[in-house]
Each structure stands twice: as structure tokens, then as C-alpha cells.
Amino acid sequence: MSQPITEQGRWMFIVNPIAGNGFAKKYESTVEEMIRKYGVDADVV
Q: How many domains does the chain have?
């Protein structure tokens, strides 16, 4: 069985800066802010 990329219970958000003609990159800081605000155990890559 393959190993998960992250530890169990941890989230990873992948932001492709080119996706949607730059739309995704525009919201990267908002996603990071919400992760901190709600105490989510996550990384944004």
C-alpha cells in the first residue's frame, strides 16, 4: 500500500498560479488566512 503525502488528518491545498488565467493565485492569501483563522492543520503549496 502506498504512503499518503501528508499525515492523517492534515490537509494540503494546491494552488496552481496559472489556473483560471491567474484566478487561483489571486485567492492564495485568502485561503492561507482562512486556514489560520479556523485553526486548520494545513499547508498551501
A: 1
In our burial notation (b when 16+ CB lie closer than 10 A, e otherwise), range 15-31 reads eeeeeeeeeeeeeeeee
Residue 3 lies inside a defined structural domain of this protein: no
What would the grid cell of residue 8 be? 492523517
What is the model's pTM?
A: 0.67
Q: Tell me the per-residue pLDDT of 1-45, one tens digit each, with 9 for 90 and over.
A: 445 555 567 899 999 989 889 888 889 999 999 999 999 999 999
User: Which range marks the domain in which residue 27 is found?
Assistant: 11-44
* Owner of C-alpha cell 491545498: 13
